[in-house]
């Protein structure tokens, strides 16, 4: 009536996270094709440099590692959700559609404290794990945690190398961190 145009955002399932344009429906379709998954909703969580992908999955079992590995084979790292939250059924709104707003909040607030693994970790692994916890606060950290799957990039790799040098006197090469990727493998560099 007054000539004002209001832009309500994209409606095609694309989001941009840390400079990468991501097609959410492609990720959802791949996850939906996996055995045991009844429904899935992939969403951007957070804003700006802290934004990441989260996946809400309706399934009878929790197989996050296998789901992430499957996606990592078919998609670049930035298209693999950093957090998977499993529900018996995805919540729906009054219109019968998946309640994306409440799912975003649930994924953002999901409890991701450092997991205790059955294997004993070395002092080097503990040191690297502590640095990962500093670089990726609130994310689940285990010896098999992947630097890039957690949201790592070249600037964080430089920061990690500096943190390691401060503690050990040895500075790993950035390329070696890129190649090693996991806490257990990065620990062998020091």
UniProtKB/TrEMBL annotation:
Q: Name one Pfam family in it.
A: PP-binding
Q: Which GO terms describe its molecular function?
A: phosphopantetheine binding
GO CC terms on record? cytoplasm
Instruction: Please provide the record's keywords in A-Z order.
Output: Phosphopantetheine, Phosphoprotein
InterPro entries recorded: AB_hydrolase_fold, ACP-like_sf, AMP-bd_C_sf, PP-bd_ACP, Ppantetheine_attach_site
Q: Domain Carrier, which positions? A: 119-190
Q: Which SUPFAM superfamilies match?
A: Acetyl-CoA synthetase-like, ACP-like
Provide the leader sequence positions: none
Gene Ontology process terms (BP): amino acid activation for nonribosomal peptide biosynthetic process; secondary metabolite biosynthetic process
> Under which name does UniProt file this protein?
Carrier domain-containing protein
Give the organism the record lists: Thalassospira lucentensis
């Amino acid at each position: 009536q007054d000539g004002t145009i209001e832009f309500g955002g994209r409606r095609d399932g694309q989001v941009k996270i840390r400079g990468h344009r991501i097609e959410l429906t492609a990720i959802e379709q791949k996850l939906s094709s996996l055995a045991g998954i009844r429904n899935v909703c992939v969403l951007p969580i957070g804003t700006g440099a802290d934004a990441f992908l989260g996946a809400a999955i309706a399934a009878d079992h929790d197989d996050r590692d296998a789901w992430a590995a499957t996606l990592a084979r078919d998609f670049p790292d930035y298209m693999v959700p950093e957090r998977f939250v499993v529900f018996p059924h995805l919540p729906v709104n009054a219109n019968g559609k998946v309640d994306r707003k409440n799912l975003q909040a649930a994924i953002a607030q999901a409890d991701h404290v450092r997991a205790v693994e059955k294997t004993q970790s070395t002092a080097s692994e503990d040191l690297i794990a502590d640095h990962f916890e500093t670089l990726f606060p609130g994310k689940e950290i285990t010896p098999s945690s992947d630097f890039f799957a957690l949201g790592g990039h070249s600037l964080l790799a430089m920061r990690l190398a500096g943190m390691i040098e401060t503690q050990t006197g040895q500075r790993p090469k950035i390329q070696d961190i890129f190649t090693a990727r996991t806490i257990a493998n990065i620990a062998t560099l020091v």
